Structure formats: structure tokens, C-alpha cells
Amino acid sequence: MDNYMFKKLNPHFGHHIVCVRYGDPDDPVDVCIECEDCGEVLISAEDFELGEDFIEGIKADAIADCAGILAKSCWENK
Q1: How far apart are CA 15 and CA 35, in angstroms?
Q2: For the whole prediction, is pTM greater than 0.85?
């Protein structure tokens, strides 16, 4: 299977997996899913931080994709 999360998580099947907060419990700097058996961070909330530039880029890509799909659909339905 060519799926990043599958490849990342599958080796830890049956291991003790925990959710951990770092920093102040009321205002943590990060939250992670970790494998206690291996001591490996599997997922970190920091990996999913999206800056405004990134979000604007995604919006622009989505608009361009939609415009392309609509143009193709209109062309095919002529």
C-alpha cells in the first residue's frame, strides 16, 4: 500500500501508543501521538501548522483546479 500514514503506523501495531502534551498543560506548545515501546513520535501537531501563505496557496490551487475541471466539462459537453 502506497499510503504514508499506513507505512508510518503499521509497524507500531500492538505497541503502547499515547497522546502527550508538551509545555504548559493549559497552553501546550505541542501535542503528539507517540509509541512508548519505540520512543518514536508518530504524529506531531507541529507537523500540521499551516501559515497564511500556505493556506492562500491551497485556495489558489483549488480555484485553478476547479476552473480547469469546469473548462474541461464545458468543452466536453459542447
Answers
A1: 7
A2: no
Alpha carbon of 6 to those of 11, 21, 34, 53: distances in Å?
9, 23, 15, 29
What span, in angstroms and rounded, lies between the C-alpha atoms of 33 and 49?
Answer: 16
- Rounded Cα distance between 52 and 64, Å, is 18
Torsion of CA 56, 57, 59, 64, to 10 degrees: 140
| Pairwise CA distance, residues 35 & 17, whole Å | 5
Task: Collapse the DSSP code of 37 into the 3-class scheme (helix H, G, I; strand E, B; otherwise coil) and give the result.
Answer: coil
| pLDDT, tens digit, 9 for 90 and up, residues 25-77 | 899 999 999 999 999 999 988 887 766 665 666 666 666 666 565 555 555 55
